[in-house]
Amino acid sequence: xxxxxxxxxxxxxxxxxxxxxxxxxxxxxxxxxxxxxxxxxxxxxxxxxxxxxxxxxxxxxxxxxxxxxxxxxxxxxxxxxxxxxxxxxxxxxxxxxxxxxxxxxxxxxxxxxxxxxxxxxxxxxxxxxxxxxxxxxxxxxxxxxxxxxxxxxxxxxxxxxxxxxxxxxxx
Length: 171
Fold this sequence. Notes:
The chain is of the alpha+beta class. Helices cover 47% and strands 25% of the residues.
């Protein structure tokens, strides 16, 4: 009975450590992605299958894809809120606040290759639904001075939206 308990505890720790390594690998990838200027600089972080798809694309298409990847991954806050061990590695449940202040949730498949976790598929969707009531311009301007990057991003997004449909812009 004691051996069974120890094996169960050991298995739970192994899964926990694997998840932490997957989370750490994903966060490292995101940190590198924020700084690089070419897709080739992040290829080592991708799983073989994803890397092969990118490498076989023409240079012009790779450049466009990288531009989209960079613009769609600009976030002011990113948190891994769940992780599940899978047969091929781990699945991460991720929450992010974009530079526009928009909330998103995502699922990231981390693939274990050669003892390392690499980014497989990512799928993201913006949260939709009724948001907070619109703030007055003076409150949005005050939010732009906040110490919170999330508050500043949301205020900037709201100001941008307000300026397109308003005869009297805030700024």
